Amino acid sequence: MVRLAQILIESRAKMSIAKSHLKRLDDLKKDIEECEKIQESIVGLKKTKERMKHPSFPDYDLGKSHIEYFYCKNIDKDDIGHSDRPKLKKDCPGCDSQAPVLMSYEQSYDSPDGDKWTKTAFTVCECGKYNELKSTSRNHRFL
Ligand SMILES: [Zn+2]
C-alpha cells in the first residue's frame, strides 16, 4: 500500500510538470499565430500595392482570391476605411506606444446561397504585438 501511495504522489508531480509544459506549448502556438499574422499582413500590404498598380487592376476583384491589406483610414461604428498610406495610429496594448492601424479585406465565405465579405482592423507594433481592433462582415462587397 505504501508503494501505491508513492506512485500516486509521483504521478501527480509528473502530471503537474506535463501540464505546465502543455501551457507553455499553447503559449508558443499563440506566439507562432501572432507572428504569422504580422508577417502575412506586412507581406500582404506590399502585394496588394503591387496588384493595384497592375494594368488589369480595374478588373481585379479585390479580396476575392487573396486577402488584401491596406493601411486603415478610420474605424467607424459600422465600417473600416482603407488608405494607401499610414493614416491612423492606436495605442498598443503590449507597450503603450502608438502603432499604425492596418486592415485586411477578403471574401471570407463564398457560396451560391450567399457570400461573406470581411474587413478587419488591427495594429502591428514594433514590440511584436498584433492586436485586432474591429472586424465587420456583410453579404456583399465593401470595395
Ligand atoms: Zn507595442
Would you give an account of this structure?
The chain contains one helix and six strands, in the order H-E-E-E-E-E-E. The protein has 143 residues and is α+β, with helices and mostly antiparallel strands. It has one domain. Strands 1, 2, 3, 4, 5 and 6 form a six-stranded antiparallel sheet that branches. Zinc ion binds at residues 92, 94-95, 97, 99, 125, 127, 129. The site of zinc ion has 8 residues, from loops.
Topology:
Elements: H1 2-53, E1 68-75, E2 80-83, E3 89-91, E4 98-109, E5 116-124, E6 130-138
Antiparallel strand pairs: 1-2, 1-4, 3-4, 4-5, 5-6
Sketch the major β-sheet.
6 strands, antiparallel
What binds here, in terms of ligands, is: zinc ion
**Structural class by secondary-structure content:** alpha+beta
Instruction: Tell me the helix content.
Output: 25-40%
Gyration radius, in Å: 22 Å
